[in-house]
Each structure stands twice: as C-alpha cells, then as structure tokens.
Specification:
The complex is a heterodimer of chains A (312) and B (385).
Chain A (H helix, E strand, L loop, with lengths): L28 H13 L3 E5 L3 H4 L13 E3 L5 H17 L9 E7 H6 L2 H10 L4 E6 L39 H6 L5 E5 L4 H13 L4 E6 L3 H4 L6 H10 L5 E5 L2 E5 L9 H4 L10 H24 L5
Parallel strand pairs in A: 1-2, 1-3, 3-4, 4-6, 5-6
Antiparallel strand pairs in A: 5-7, 7-8
Chain B lengths: L2 H4 L4 E6 H11 L2 E6 L6 H14 L2 E4 L3 H14 L2 E6 L1 H6 L1 H9 L4 E9 L5 E5 L4 H6 L8 E3 L4 H18 L2 E7 H5 L1 E6 L59 H16 L2 H4 L2 E4 L6 E6 L1 H15 L4 E6 L1 E3 L3 H9 L3 E6 L5 H9 L5 E5 L8 H12 L1
Classes of the chains: A alpha/beta (312), B alpha/beta (385).
Chain lengths: 312, 385
C-alpha cells in the first residue's frame, strides 16, 4: 500500500484547516508544520491544544485559524483531554449513538508542554494505548512567554533563563530526546517531521492517522523570534538541520527504525549554528563539542536502523 | 556568604517591581530559586538567571510548578535561603507543596505575581483573586503569612520581610504581588547593607544527641539544622512527633496542627503590618491592599478635597488577619469600603472582623484592570448619601 503513495504538490489536499489570518510571527515554521499536519489529517479531526505559541496565535477571534473542533485546556494536559475525547468517541460509537466512522483525535503542544510539564501526561496517554496522535512542535524554548530555556533547548544556546555570560555559556544540558522516550513506550508509530520536507511530513502524518493505537510525531519548528534567525530562511534552516544531522528525519514503526534523507557525510554543524543569534557566542571548542555529539547520535541512529531491519 | 559585595549599590534605581523583587531577595540572602516560566512573573527569574551566576547563587528552571515549588525546599534543608516564583495557574499547582512546607516547617517564600483567572484567564492582566487561595489553598489546617506590596519599592523591601518571617516562624510566606505592581517601573531606593535588617536562620547549637528537628525549646518555633550537619533529620508530610517520625495518633495530630496554626496566628501583632490615615472621626474608611491601595489613596484625597471626611487603611500584610485592628477602625468610623481587584474576598474577612459595628461595602471587579479612582469616589458618595 505504502509503495503506491505518490506525492506531488498538486496532489496535496487544497483545503486548509489551520487557515490564514492567524497572528504567528513572520517566518514562523511552527505554524507551517501545524498547517501541513492538519492538511494531511483532513476535516474529520478533533484537536486538543496545550498552552503555547500555537494556542495563542491561532485562537483569539478574529484571528481564529481553526476550521475543526478545537479545545485548549491548560499547559500540561492536552494528551489527557485527547484521551478522554478518544475514549468517549469509542464508547459512543460502540453504543450506536454516533455513526461509526474514522475521526482523528490529535493532541499537540510545544516543546515545553511536551518535554517538561506535559511529559507524564503524554506518557500516560501512550501507555494506555489510545487511538490518537500527539504532535510536539519543537521550537526549542518557551517562546510564548519570552524565550526561556526548556529541556529541549540545544546545549549552550542562549535564552533569557540560560543567558550566555562570562560565568555560564548558555544552556547547560543536552537536548532531551523525547522521540526516543516515546519510542521506548513501544507504541506503533513514532516519527520526526520537518516542514522543510512537506511530502515526508504528510506521509508520516497520514500513516500516524491510519495506524490503530497511539502515534507520536516530533516536528522541527524554526522560530526566528526566539532563535534570532532571519525570517526568510526558515525552510533553509530546516534543511540545514537535517543535513548537519542535528535533527534527523526518521520513523520508528513497530520497533523498526527507518531514516529518511540519509546523509552520506554530515554537513559541518557550523553551517547551521552560524545562522542563529542564540549560538553566536559559540567558541570553536563549543562547536566541536556539539558536533561530536551530533555525529555520535547520528551514527547510533543508523546502527539502530541496521539492527531493527526486517530479517536481521 | 558574599552578601555585602553582591547587593546593588545603595541609592536610587529605576526598575520594575519584578526586578525589585529579585534584588530584594538577593539582599535578604536568598541564593537559591527554582522556578518555571509564567507570565507575568517571568522577569523575576530572568533577572536572577543573569545575577545569580555572578554572586554564587543558583537558579534552576524546573519542568513544572510542582517541581519548582518543592525543589527549593530541598535546598532550604541543605542550608540556604530559597524561594519560588509563579503566577495564577502555577500557584494552583503549588498548593500541595505549600501544605508540605507548613507541615515540615520549612522556611519558604512563594512569590505569586497575580493575574486574572480562573484557569488561564488573562495572563497579562492584573488581579487580586488569589488572596483566599493563599490562605486556604492547600488542604488541612495550617498557618501561613502573606504580604502584599503596593509599589516597586515595596516589592524590594517586603520580600526581605518575607524571608525574615520565613526564618522567624518557619512557615510558608506568600508574597502576593500582581501584574501591575510587577511591571510598574518606578524609583526604588536601595538602602545600604547596614540598613537592611536580615534575619538569619536559627541553627541549633545543641549536640546531636540533644536535638530533635521538631522539638520546641522556647516559644513555639523549633530550632533548625542543616542536612548533613550531624543532627538526625527525618522529614515527612505525615503527622509526626518531635523527632520527625510518623505518629498516627489523634494526640499527635492535635498537638502538631494546633502548634502549626498557633505559631502564626498567636503572633498576629508581631506579624501584622498596615498603614492608616485620617481614620479617627471619619465618616468612611477605604480598606485596600496592593496596587488597589494606591487607587484608594487617590480617591480618598479627591473626596477630602471636596470636604468629605474619608480615611484610608492599607493592609500590607494580608495573613494572618488582624481582626482587632480592623475592629478598632470600625469603631472610629461610620462606613467601611473594601476595594480589591476581585468579586469579594478580603471584604468577607473584614465583615467577619467588624461584626456588624458599621456597614461594610465592597468595590471590586473581576480582574483584568486596575479599578479607576472614580468608582471609589462614587461609592464613597453613595454610602454617605
């Protein structure tokens, strides 16, 4: 079935469910990712939103961007409310009070709502095995409250609560690997997505929706405001992130790893770092430190793909 | 500690209430803050994450408010002064650990830069809707202290008092700021270090065999120690005896919980702070606190200029509530108006204390904006008509 999928821009659905007129910043790639996700999911979708950029920019009237049922709860609990929605739909359909049909239930949040405050709630939803999708739109800090660090912020990046100074050179920890945490739940489908690769994104979202059981998607989301990057290079940044290996595209389907846009040799990390103000204090040693880790993790990822290959 | 060299240069500064609060905490000797970003309090931790590395303090950004409100309590027992900083939704999450701090008598400061609720509400707009939650938010009976600053200057000065109270009474002290005070820029005069009164922790000098962490030797507050200093420490949120071991008897519950309440509520006179003017022989007194007290001040000045005998009382401490002082005010006037940015919280406390001596009226709103002085002037004219 999968082999028959053909993608071309004119074959993408024309209809949008995250519509124009929202108030995202110039060059926001996060809202682009969200628009593509919902383009792929279609009209029969109910969305639960955590507090964050994507909540605040898409919901106030008249800048409301949503053309599907949408609920904002609090910061930590979009996965829990989606669990409730999914369970109720299942019960109503079983009792014949709703006609049986496919309704996608999606919960989403930013990296703070996913990697920090919401982690246990998402873990609970994945463990219970609800037929739902959780999407993390990862822009690597709390952008909505003014660029504070999260556990998803890259090593040494400067934010307002991890300011790069003489004593401490920015964020002190390596980015938390939520994708692997979710894969460790042994759920049917986990994948990373990136709006710079729209066809890959659409394919993965549709697969996540088609699969019975929970799916987790992790979206690379460039934030010109928080990263100090030029708003017009968002798509280029997304490609650089994949080419340098700092945000590889891959999926874990029933335990089997598959890497997309595989790089024969990784591009120097410097090409990615130098485009953003949050990295401008980086010394050569700091660049080397990050590059080494990125390389190591990329090699590990390729090994995982090799190890979980069918027939091995 | 490096305190003397690390506080701001004494003299006049221009800063907002959030920054003043951060600097006040540093002056009080606070060197550990665990927090989580939330509007409109975030500037406090942003400021501290720049200042602390220079002065040997530590700011830890936690993964949520549940962990932020307990992380610093661990630091306190390790021997430093600590606090956490939040706003409405985060304050709701912190309730469990306010109760824990009360039960384990941990000197702890919780800053709440109030915003309009319920739930996510108006994240960028002020309110005074959390004052009853501050008193009663965690389950069970316990005593807490809450202060309410009305200006950036007081954000600096009163946070020092919060730390002093926390060390003196070993209880949660809640600093109830609001969005307007937090974001209001103004002149803040930093006193010289000698003029700042800082209460240091009362660490027991007893030998380990002679020490129990919850044994009251004098007064009603036990002496503290530091984890690892040689004294035996056993901490639990369960009802415990003076050694800290769980004791599941009603007798232990009675004696412990009565003391937790009493060590605050029996010291109302020492703790309570309020300012009053023109109360004696007045026809009406406006009672208020925080930023609303500045509004009340304008209104009282306006009606006094028009010949109305109006007075003003500003509550600086909210909890414990000084019933007797409020009752005395009721005896000196004919009407009391309570002005607050909520739909009636402290007004009930005032009514309870006044016991019907004079009528008590409320002026409030649902939060989101500071109440205009005209509303107060109108109410004053209405009640005196």
């Amino acid at each position: 079935m999968e082999k028959l999928n053909v993608f071309a821009s004119r074959l993408l659905p024309k209809e949008d469910f995250v519509c124009a007129g929202h108030r995202a910043c110039q060059g926001c790639a996060e809202v682009l990712a969200m628009r593509l996700v919902h383009k792929a999911l279609g009209r029969n979708t109910i969305a639960a939103s955590a507090t964050g950029c994507m909540e605040i920019i898409s919901s106030p009237y008249p800048e409301t961007a949503w053309a599907i049922p949408w609920i904002h709860v609090a910061f930590e609990n979009s996965a829990s409310v989606a669990s409730g929605i999914e369970s109720a739909l299942k019960a109503l359909m079983r009792k014949g009070r709703l006609p049986k049909r496919k309704i996608n239930v999606i919960a989403y949040g930013g990296d703070g709502a996913t990697a920090d405050i919401g982690l246990q709630w998402i873990s609970g939803a994945m463990e219970r095995g609800h037929n739902m999708i959780y999407v993390c739109y990862d822009n690597e800090a709390y952008m909505n409250t003014g660029i504070q660090r999260s556990s998803s912020t890259p090593l040494h990046a400067s934010t307002t609560t991890s300011p790069a100074g003489k004593v401490v050179p920015g964020q002190q920890t390596w980015k938390k690997n939520v994708v692997e945490i979710m894969a460790a739940h042994s759920i049917p489908y986990v994948a990373t997505i990136n709006p710079s690769y729209p066809f890959d994104l659409v394919r993965k979202v549709q697969k996540a929706a088609a699969i019975e059981g929970p799916a987790y998607l992790h979206a690379y989301s460039c934030c010109p405001t928080g990263w100090g990057s030029r708003p017009e290079i968002g798509i280029q940044l997304g490609r650089l992130a994949v080419e340098t290996g700092i945000f590889p595209l891959y999926e874990v389907e029933n335990g089997q790893y598959r890497v997309q846009e595989k790089q024969e040799t990784l591009r120097p990390l410097k090409d990615y770092l130098k485009t953003q103000r949050r990295f401008r204090h980086f010394s050569e040693a700091m660049i080397a430190q990050s590059e080494q880790r990125v390389k190591k993790e990329y090699e590990l990822l390729l090994k995982k793909e090799q190890m979980t290959k069918e027939g091995v | 500690m490096l305190r003397g060299e690390t506080v701001l240069r004494s003299g006049k500064h221009f800063m907002d209430g959030n920054e003043a609060c951060a600097e006040g905490a540093i002056a009080a000797g606070c060197r550990f803050v665990s927090g989580y970003p939330i509007t409109p309090s975030t500037e406090i931790v942003e400021h501290l994450s720049r200042r602390f590395p220079e002065i040997g303090g530590m700011f830890l950004q936690m993964e949520d408010e549940l962990s932020a409100s307990i992380c610093f309590q661990g630091a306190v027992w390790a021997g430093v002064k600590g606090m956490t900083v939040t706003s409405g939704p985060g304050f709701s999450l912190m309730m469990e650990h306010i109760g824990f701090a009360a039960m384990t008598e941990t000197p702890s400061v919780f800053v709440n830069v109030q915003r309009a609720g319920p739930s996510t509400g108006l994240p960028t707009a002020p309110a005074q809707q959390d004052v009853m939650q501050a008193r009663w938010g965690s389950h069970g009976d316990y005593g807490i202290i809450a202060l309410s600053p009305a200006s950036p200057q007081e954000c600096h000065d009163l946070i020092i008092t919060c730390f002093n109270y926390a060390e003196t009474y070993r209880c949660p002290v809640l600093f109830m700021m609001d969005e307007t005070v937090g974001h209001m820029h103004g002149k803040v005069t930093i006193p010289s270090m000698e003029d700042i009164h800082v209460v240091e922790r009362r660490i027991s000098t007893r030998s380990p065999s002679d020490y129990a962490p919850f044994r009251v030797v004098e007064g009603d507050v036990p002496e503290m120690t530091r984890a690892g200093a040689g004294h035996r420490i056993h901490m639990t949120g369960l009802t415990h005896d003076e050694r800290g071991y769980p004791d599941m008897t009603t007798a232990a519950q009675e004696s412990l919980v009565r003391r937790l309440c009493g060590k605050v509520n029996n010291h109302v006179k020492e703790i309570s702070m309020m300012e009053s003017r023109h109360v004696e022989g007045s026809d009406v007194v406006v009672i208020s606190y925080g930023i609303s007290a500045q509004i009340a001040g304008h209104a009282v000045d306006a009606v006094r200029a028009a010949g109305i005998r109006a007075g003003q009382v500003r509550l600086i401490s909210l909890w414990p509530f000084d019933d007797e002082a409020i009752r005395n005010i009721a005896r000196s006037t004919r009407h009391i108006i309570v002005l607050e940015m909520n739909l009636g919280q402290m007004v009930r406390e005032v009514e309870r204390a006044v016991r019907g001596i004079v009528p008590v009226h409320a002026v409030g709103n649902a939060g989101g904006r500071v109440i205009a002085p005209d509303c107060v002037v109108e109410k004053i004219r209405e009640v005196l008509r």
